[in-house]
Design a protein that fits this description.
Layout (H helix, E strand, L loop, with lengths): L7 H21 L5 H6 L3 H4 L12 E14 L3 E14 L2 E12 L2 E14 L4 E17 L10 E18 L5 E14 L3 E10 L6 E10 L2 E14 L6
Antiparallel strand pairs: 1-2, 1-10, 2-3, 3-4, 4-5, 5-6, 6-7, 7-10, 8-9
Length: 238
């Protein structure tokens, strides 16, 4: 053997180096203690809880706007805009409506709604409602290329409507509603109105008096886009 191996200082230094390297290897890969393992959150505990499924409420309030077209076939028509409020409890619904329409004529109306409304948990909504009210018609039969002012009348009406749509339930309290509506109603009576007016000839330039008689009223049809908001009034549904 070499003499320097038997030197006590050298043997001490070699033993210290071996211990130091072993300690470094242990520190590089520590073993967690049982207490640390128990306190560490598990993947299942840190995952968010599953979303609670949405259930349609028993009671809600729908506020809707309906732009569309209306017509009394072969008689009069124009654009149509209606606003409505509908309170539903279970499958029964009541509400009110107000509308304005016009093109060559003007229509102002207000009435009530009553009937059935169904709402599914997935968002589908269907309404079958009866409607009744009163309307004011101005300019019925007014001419496009002449000076005929048309006839004015106040009428009562009754009819029905079907509205289908979807309620988007991303929020727990208020929701957006989108759908479409078909409506028909009939005036409970008609009025014959005679109007007298002065017109001017296109080529002669002469003025002369004319009269026209219009029968105001009949059956009206309307089709419209429907959109608005639905407010859940039943807390158990949220």
């Amino acid at each position: 053997m070499l003499p320097w191996i038997h030197s006590r200082p050298l043997r001490a230094r070699a033993a210290f180096a071996v211990a130091l390297s072993a300690n470094a290897g242990f520190a590089a890969s520590p073993t967690p203690s049982p207490a640390a393992t128990a306190l560490a959150p598990s993947p299942a505990a840190s995952a968010p809880p599953p979303a609670r499924p949405y259930h349609a409420p028993v009671t809600d309030l729908t506020l809707a706007v309906q732009p569309g077209l209306m017509a009394w076939p072969k008689r009069a028509g124009g654009i149509w805009l209606e606003t409505s409020a509908l309170y539903r409890h279970g499958v029964l619904a009541v509400g009110s409506t107000a509308e304005v329409g016009g093109l060559l004529m003007t229509v102002l109306a207000a009435g009530g709604l009553a009937g059935f409304a169904l709402r599914a948990d997935g968002g589908f909504r269907a309404e079958l409602l009866g409607t009744a009210g009163a309307r004011y018609v101005e300019g019925w039969g007014a001419g496009l290329l002449d000076d005929d002012p048309g006839a004015d009348a106040c009428l009562a009406y009754a009819g029905g409507r079907l509205r289908l749509g979807h309620v988007f339930t991303q929020h727990r309290l208020g929701h957006f509603f989108l759908g479409g509506a078909l409506q028909f109603d009939r005036d409970l009576w008609t009025e014959q109105v005679t109007s007298t007016y002065t017109t001017t000839g296109w080529f002669s330039g002469e003025s002369y008096t004319r009269s026209s008689t219009e029968t105001v009223g009949g059956t009206r049809y309307a089709v419209a886009l429907a959109f608005g908001g639905v407010l859940d009034l039943d807390r158990h549904a949220r």
